Amino acid sequence: MNNRHILLVEDNPDDEELTLLALDQSGISYNIVVAHDGVEALDYLFGTGRYADRDINRLPAVVLLDIKMPRIDGLEVLQRLRANDRTKLLPVVILTTSTEEQDLLNGYSFGCNSYIRKPVDYVQFMTAVRQLGVYWLLLNEAPPLLGI
Questions:
Q1: Residues 96/64, Cβ–Cβ less than 8 Å
Q2: How confident is the chain (148 residues) per 10-residue block, as mean pLDDT?
Q3: How many domains does the chain divide into?
Q4: Domain region containing 65
Q5: pTM higher than 0.85, yes or no?
Q6: What number of other Cβ atoms are within 10 A of residue 143's Cβ?
Q7: Does residue 91 sit within a domain?
């Protein structure tokens, strides 16, 4: 079993379900951890809160990060990841419905690796997410210090 995993940070249950379905249909062996807001994502990545006993040296291959979320939004999550030596190189893909140009600019300014607007069309959405999984888990070469 492949021990590589994806952290999906998504507060919308419908988008979560579609994303999980698309990743499942990609045919790649990996685990998916879901965080439903920025606080939960940071707890997972930094081993705090309910994830206090998690091995924080095992980072995901990629974080798929929504930006419009309650408690802590995705852009703040991204800033905190980039400010930490252990997570500053962690691949982060913003996967959002936001069409705001400022969100796009902030995403890249804060260090995202890719910014993808979620397609509204079901088939396009499924295709985009499957391609994300293939690229980040099979094609992309992660920095060796990430322990993934």
A1: no
A2: 78 90 78 95 96 91 92 96 94 91 95 90 85 84 63
A3: 1
A4: 1-8+59-69+84-98+111-120
A5: yes
A6: 11
A7: yes
